[in-house]
Amino acid sequence: xxxxxxxxxxxxxxxxxxxxxxxxxxxxxxxxxxxxxxxxxxxxxxxxxxxxxxxxxxxxxxxxxxxxxxxxxxxxxxxxxxxxxxxxxxxxxxxxxxxxxxxxxxxxxxxxxxxxxxxxxxxxxxxxxxxxxxxxxxxxxxxxxxxxxxxxxxxxxxxxxxxxxxxxxxxxxxxxxxxxxxxxxxxxxxxxxxxxxxxxxxxxxxxxxxxxxxxxxxxxxxxxxxxxxxxxxxxxxxxxxxxxxxxxxxxxxxxxxxxxxxxxxxxxxxxxxxxxxxxxxxxxxxxxxxxxxxxxxxxxxxxxxxxxxxxxxxxxxxxxxxxxxxxxxx
Length: 330
Fold this sequence. Notes:
There is one protein chain. By secondary structure, the chain is of the alpha+beta class. It has two domains: 192 residues, de novo design (two linked rop proteins) (Up-down Bundle), CATH 1.20.1440; 101 residues, PAS domain (Beta-Lactamase, 2-Layer Sandwich). Helices cover 72% and strands 11% of the residues. The longest helix has 75 residues.
């Protein structure tokens, strides 16, 4: 729908600006989602690297505890060994859950869990050998070459997984930087485009504002030069009143300051003859209630004596429930 008197240049500027804002917002939304997903992937990679480190540390502690048991036969070392292996298995489970979208790493995590289980079984076997035959039987068992250094295999596998995650970390951080730079570019480009498309709207606004100001000034000049007073009186439902506008001729007709009357309507009402004030207000409130034209003659105090005046107004109900009475000279 085309508004009367609307400036096409202003419409173009406003709609173009709105389009740019929507497009820029949607693009930034997509870039923000991409950045968030990249951040989550970076966090997951860092957590995976931490899990690998925990597994290596736990296996090393288990090896140290097992060696202590071999030498001393003290069950105290077995407690430390079992606690370390339990921690390694827990970290391996966490690691496997992080690789739902990476088949190669998921397969390595499954192999790692199997190696840790084999290592646990071998620990139990060596523990029984030590308990049954002592340190000599244990030496003989280990010298046969049956033990194939499961810890070394575990460390090799975890190192492969760690290197894979480090490469993935570099790639994902590069992706983060790219998405961030893209968001900055979108903001900068969008800002320039927004300013460019807002210029026509701003020019149209200045033109319309200037034209509106000139029209209002012309109306005000006409009102100031009319022989009677032009006013706008607002009456509220609780019968409070306020002048919204008073032409300069009100000062001559009523002998009061226009500025003071705009602040306090009693300044003008106090000039009405006491006998005419109540009938005037009763008729005014009735007109506001019924929204009927208001016409009334009344007397006002004048330095030369008493002067008769007539007021004409057409009441109009406003959205806030008040009634506005624009009045013009008879």
